[in-house]
Amino acid sequence: MHLIVFCHGFQGNAFDMRYVKNNISLLHKNTLFLCASSNEEMTDGNIEDMGIRFADEVRAFIKEYCPGSELGRLSFIGHSLGGLIIRAGLPYLEEFKDVMHLYMSFSSPHLGYMYNSSKIIDAGLWLLKKWKKSQSLVQLSMTDSKKLEDTFLYKLSEYKVILSLLPKKEN
User: The domain 2-109+159-165: what is its CATH number?
Assistant: First the structure.
């Protein structure tokens, strides 16, 4: 069984990924799909916490719908913040590393919004960070620590589990 898990972006919900899921399901009839909903209404929070909730949801889904050794492949598709939520959740899904097949993200800010050239986006981010007290936007703008090396996105790039999931290069 191949399970493809979708994760929505900032201020989104599971239905945001339904169009992509429906198109993929036309091509892959014998595939299970999960449009993650564990972070709906909570995308203003800490990205690592969202990753943990995401991993718990994936684990529960696998336990219910892919018991035993029925899971042959596990793939992830994320949009915007969803791509980072997936990356933050991967260390908590290490038990499935042998069946991980694909990770794909669309418009995900993997490098954050630290060096943005648009004054309009800068103003919008500043307003949302202040008005909504959005921890995820603070993390995306890499202002969650004075030292760059201590920011969440920098630490996420160094997660050893994620690095171990990458395919090994053959010589």
Answer: 3.40.50.1820
Q: Domain ranges for the chain, please list them.
A: 2-109+159-165
Cα–Cα distance for residue pair 8/83, rounded to 1 Å: 8
Furthest C-alpha separation in the chain: 52
- Kindly state the tokens that stand for 75: 């793939």
pLDDT per residue over 140-160, tens digit each? 888 889 999 999 999 998 887
- pLDDT attached to residue 159: 81
Tokens at 119, concatenated: 């004054």
- Asked whether the whole model's pTM tops 0.70, one would answer yes
Contacts of 36 (CB under 8 A, 6+ apart): 5, 6, 7, 8, 14, 54, 57, 58, 82, 85
